[in-house]
């Protein structure tokens, strides 16, 4: 059998393995559930202190008050503000002019540890990667866009919990702390796949799954971001958080999670989950066949199986519980 014909058969086989029906898929929903879990772990006094700080956000009128639905019950207004704070860093992508320059920080959302499609890719690429693997804050903070997620979490935490810092700065820092602590619990925000032919960029690889096409939600990263849903109202997100906290298995998971408050460990957990569940045998078989066929990385999409979707959904639920409990524990420092 000719090599081209053999490769095409391997590719067809891999595509057949990656067949499934579209399933229910951590955009706004994931972050808001995390925020509600954290908020509900606070005392009423801590809740009030947090919300009072967030009300002094420099863009509170544009990004909070004007977006609050008119039907939010008064008793849930504070929780809505905290939910909104958790997604605010994503809103900054659509800002214009000086506010976008000041508040939008794309590299803050991730710190990708490298995975390699094959051992040959590892041997050829590992020593040449240019990823920012530093976990501590640099002395020079004049260019904030050079920070990765772990560095940005450290900066946000330092500012948010500083009672001497201006309240508007603390409010912005709390938004980033909620959001980034959530992001780093999402496996695709802690990993990237590298391949000499498919994903050769030494600084980003497949960009946390963004360059892996799947028929469900467009790409692998979006699929994982959306496992808990895309958009949700305050009552629904609150109810989902309450239900998770009432579940004995999830509650035990959360209580165990607060014993580990080092974000480096959170990232390591996500990386291990990425190896096991994001880039499982379905995805790597598909990518290896794509690589061997000579086709471009974006030329074909994988339709992942129902088992893949179920595993992804379960992993995502556990990670939002762990993130929510951990942020709530961090907020014990709130003064």
UniProtKB/TrEMBL annotation:
**CDD domains in UniProt:** S1-P1_nuclease
Supply the alphabetized keyword list. Answer: Disulfide bond, Endonuclease, Glycoprotein, Hydrolase, Metal-binding, Nuclease
SUPFAM superfamilies according to UniProt: Phospholipase C/P1 nuclease
Q: Which InterPro entries match?
A: PLipase_C/P1_nuclease_dom_sf, S1/P1nuclease
Give a GO molecular function annotation for the protein: nucleic acid binding
Q: Which is a GO BP term held by this UniProt record?
A: DNA catabolic process
Q: Which PANTHER family match?
A: ENDONUCLEASE 4 (PTHR33146:SF26)
What is the name of this protein? S1/P1 Nuclease
Species this protein is from: Caulifigura coniformis
């Amino acid at each position: 059998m000719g090599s081209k014909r053999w490769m095409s058969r391997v590719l067809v086989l891999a595509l057949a393995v990656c067949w499934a029906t579209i399933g229910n898929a951590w955009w706004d929903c994931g972050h808001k559930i995390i925020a509600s879990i954290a908020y509900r772990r606070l005392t009423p006094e801590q809740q009030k202190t947090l919300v009072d700080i967030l009300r002094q956000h420099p863009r509170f009128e544009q990004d909070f008050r004007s977006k609050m639905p008119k039907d939010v019950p008064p008793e849930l207004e504070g929780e809505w503000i905290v939910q909104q704070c958790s997604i605010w860093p994503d809103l900054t992508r659509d800002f214009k002019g000086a506010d976008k320059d000041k508040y939008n920080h794309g590299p803050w959302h991730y710190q990708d540890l490298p995975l390699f499609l094959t051992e040959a890719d590892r041997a050829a690429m590992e020593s040449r990667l240019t990823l920012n693997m530093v976990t501590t804050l640099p002395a020079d903070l004049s260019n904030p866009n050079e920070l990765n997620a772990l560095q940005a979490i450290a900066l946000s935490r330092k500012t948010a919990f500083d009672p001497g810092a201006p309240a508007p700065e603390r409010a912005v820092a709390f938004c980033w702390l909620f959001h980034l602590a959530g992001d780093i619990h999402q496996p695709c925000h802690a990993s990237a796949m590298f391949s000499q032919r498919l994903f050769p960029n030494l600084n980003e690889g497949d960009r946390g799954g963004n360059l892996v096409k799947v028929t469900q939600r467009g790409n692998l990263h979006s699929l994982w971001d959306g496992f808990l849903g895309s958009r949700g109202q305050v009552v629904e997100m609150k109810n989902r958080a309450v239900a998770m906290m009432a579940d004995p298995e999830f509650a035990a998971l959360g209580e165990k999670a607060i014993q580990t408050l080092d974000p480096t460990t959170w990232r390591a957990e996500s990386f291990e989950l990425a190896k096991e569940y994001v880039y499982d045998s379905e995805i790597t078989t598909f990518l290896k066949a794509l690589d061997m066929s000579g086709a471009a990385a974006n030329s074909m999409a994988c339709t992942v199986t129902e088992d893949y979707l179920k595993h992804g959904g379960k992993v995502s639920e556990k990670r939002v519980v762990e993130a929510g409990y951990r942020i709530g524990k961090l907020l014990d420092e709130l003064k």
